[in-house]
Every structure is written in C-alpha cells, then in structure tokens.
C-alpha cells in the first residue's frame, strides 16, 4: 500500500519505509540523549570533586595558619589529634569527629567540623615533632560521599613549622 499517491503517479513512501526510518531515527535520538545524560553526570561528578578539593584546601589553610602561630603543642600518642594554645591564649585542638568523619576544630570544649559533609576523611594523622621551631605534619585521605566518585581518593599531606613570636 502506498501513501501520498495522487492519480497514476506512484510517488511516495510505503508504510514499511516510514517505520524503518522512524526506527533508525529513534535509535539515533536515544543514543544522543544517553550520551548527553552521561556527560551531565560526569560534569556534576567533576564539579563535586573540585568543590571537595577547594573545601579541603581552605580547611588545611585555616589549620596551618593557626598551628603556625600556636605554642605549647601536644600531640596524642596515636597521632590522631593535636592540641596547642593559639595567639590569643585559647586551647585549640584538631582531630577527626568520630560521628561525622570530618576534621573538627575545638576551642576549649566547644567543637565544630571544619571540613564539608560531602567528603570522607580517612587515616587522619597529625604528627608533632619536637624541634626548634616545632614541625607538625598533617596527612589524611579524602574521598567524596558521591556514589559515582567513591573510588577516587586523594592523599593530602602538608607540613607546618611553628613560629615563635
């Protein structure tokens, strides 16, 4: 059966031809949409990873600045925390919050997480070496809580030397 036929002129497409063309077109559109959706997910994952790195960088900078100007350092025997007095005499400590898995900053007994909740902190170590000036090395592993990024881990390490003002 032919459609779009006028009189004796046998120009037009058959139903089979139209079904084949629509099927091929549908497959091409489905493939393009799948690639587009995958690209969006990859972009979101990359943005999440960049945000995590930025936030960790800010937290490390805050820690380093405060540690650098601190005094009376005392590290724990298991290398999981560091306590010291800051410039204005407050007792400060840095450790990992066992409930949230985030790095926390405690002033006297009041503690607050300083790393974002969308990342995991693993193997947190903070070592204090009694030297003049004091040398503190911080290292840990971060990973995203985003399921798509769970296998990507970064090891972060920095060293801070104290300043005696």
Verbal overview:
By secondary structure, the protein is of the alpha+beta class. It has one domain (15-161). The chain is 33% helix and 33% strand. The protein has one helix and eight strands; from the N terminus they run αββββββββ. It has one helix at residues 15-68; strands at residues 71-75, 81-85, 91-96, 103-107, 110-113, 119-129, 135-144, 153-161. β2 (81-85) and β3 form a beta hairpin. The mean pLDDT is 86.
SSE arrangement:
Blueprint: H1 15-68, E1 71-75, E2 81-85, E3 91-96, E4 103-107, E5 110-113, E6 119-129, E7 135-144, E8 153-161
Antiparallel strand pairs: 1-2, 2-3, 3-4, 4-5, 6-7, 7-8
Keywords:
8 strands; alpha+beta; three-stranded antiparallel beta sheet; 165 residues
Share of helical residues: 25-40%
Looking at how many chains there are and whether they match, the oligomeric state comes to: single chain
* N- and C-termini, Cα separation: 95 Å
- Domain unit count: 1
Q: What sort of overall outline do the alpha carbons produce when their principal axes are compared?
A: rod-shaped
Q: What is the tally of helical segments?
A: 1
Mean residue pLDDT: 86
Concise summary:
This protein is of the alpha+beta class. It has one helix spanning 15-68; strands at 71-75, 81-85, 91-96, 103-107, 110-113, 119-129, 135-144, 153-161.
């Amino acid at each position: 059966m032919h459609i779009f036929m006028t009189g004796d002129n046998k120009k037009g497409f058959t139903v089979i031809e139209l079904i084949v063309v629509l099927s091929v077109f549908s497959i091409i559109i489905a493939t393009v949409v799948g690639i587009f959706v995958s690209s969006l997910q990859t972009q979101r994952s990359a943005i999440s990873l960049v945000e995590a790195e930025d936030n960790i960088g800010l937290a490390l900078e805050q820690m380093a600045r405060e540690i650098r100007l601190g005094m009376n350092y005392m590290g724990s025997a298991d290398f999981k925390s560091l306590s010291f007095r800051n410039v204005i005499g407050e007792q400060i400590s840095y450790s990992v919050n066992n409930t949230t898995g985030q790095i926390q900053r405690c002033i006297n007994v009041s503690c607050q997480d300083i790393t974002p909740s969308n990342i995991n902190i693993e193997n947190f170590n903070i070592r204090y070496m009694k030297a003049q000036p004091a040398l503190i090395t911080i290292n840990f592993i971060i990973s995203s809580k985003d399921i798509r990024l769970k296998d990507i881990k970064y090891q972060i390490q920095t060293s801070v030397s104290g300043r005696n003002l």
